[in-house]
Amino acid sequence: MSLSEIACTYATLILHDEDISITSDKIATLVKAANVTVESYWPSLFAKLAEKRNVGDLIMNIGGGGGGAAPVAVASSGPAAGGAAAPAVEEKKV
């Protein structure tokens, strides 16, 4: 993540935390006040994201990315485990 992205992320979170509407101008103002130089498109990208998605929901769902992997079956030591069974030894009676 670049410094520009981090600065805009923090600015967006500050605006959200203070219940201030999130606009590209306000993000740019906060970033400038922090003495960080960002490309001009970053504040507008973050403002558009805040328009389409609820920032509070994004915060609460961070790290909730889907279910875990399916459990792996434990292999048994019997012949069904993929290994061949040892051949039976026949005893000959004389």
Automatic annotation (TrEMBL):
Pfam families: Ribosomal_60s (PF00428). The keyword Protein biosynthesis does not apply. Keywords: Ribonucleoprotein, Ribosomal protein. GO terms for molecular function: protein kinase activator activity; ribonucleoprotein complex binding; structural constituent of ribosome. GO terms for biological process: cytoplasmic translation. GO terms for cellular component: cytosolic large ribosomal subunit. It comes from the Eukaryota. Belongs to the eukaryotic ribosomal protein P1/P2 family. This is 60S acidic ribosomal protein P1. It comes from Populus tomentosa (Chinese white poplar). The lineage of its organism: Eukaryota, Viridiplantae, Streptophyta, Embryophyta, Tracheophyta.
